[in-house]
Amino acid sequence: MLNLTMPLTSSNPILSVVLPCLNEEQSLAVCLREIKQTADKMHIPYEIIVADNRSTDGSAQVARSFGARVVPVARRGYGAAVNGGILAARGEVVLFGDADCSYPFYDIPKLVTPILQGKQDFVLGNRLNNTQEKGSMPWMNRYFGTPVLSALIRWFYGIAVYDCNGGMRAFLRKIYAPLGLKQPGMEYASEMLIAAAKQNLRYLEVPIALRRAHPSHTPYLRPWRDGMRHLYIILKSLFAR
């Protein structure tokens, strides 16, 4: 059980919320507002970190206007940005999610509470077992790509994963460094789960909502290319055991 009696200050946080960001100026404000509203109601010390992946718009300025800490990450890629933000986190529990408005950050307590209670080390938000807004996920990803990749990770590594591409996750910060994550792209999501399985972490999935990304968002996911990268990591890690 974590100590929840600390002063409510962001300089000594219990929770760090990390947002990887690449030119998300318009959607970022919505995400930050939701995070602050939700975290304030939890009554624990928290900080917000925006891992800025070389944005050329006003994302950094928007982040600072909400009191977030901007961490520049020079290496491009989803995994690189998330990793850079996590390494800068100071909280005992870290949660990350996308800055495109697809994840309602009102779901933060669902992921963080089991960790604060000392019951889990790692909690993933499962988008497949809850209400999805129409058009929030491509059909191929929803019914083929993610289920197949998740099944391979379950079978090969023995961890109860059903949404391996879920991008809203929380975990104890102390377990992160031993995972040794290195992948800079979208395949980071599978690499993290495989490493968690190898470390025998206490793992849980909870249902969360999924919305359509903000209209201003530029999609960076390339389903076939990124799917093959996920598959490569799954098989490479298997034969490296």
UniProtKB/TrEMBL annotation:
Transmembrane segments: none annotated. It comes from the Bacteria. It holds the Pfam family Glycos_transf_2. InterPro entries: Glyco_trans_2-like, Glycosyltransferase_2, Nucleotide-diphossugar_trans. Residues 16-176 form the Glycosyltransferase 2-like domain. PANTHER family: RFBJ PROTEIN, UNDECAPRENYL-PHOSPHATE 4-DEOXY-4-FORMAMIDO-L-ARABINOSE TRANSFERASE-RELATED. This is Glycosyltransferase 2-like domain-containing protein. The lineage of its organism: Bacteria, Pseudomonadati, Elusimicrobiota, Elusimicrobia, Elusimicrobiales.
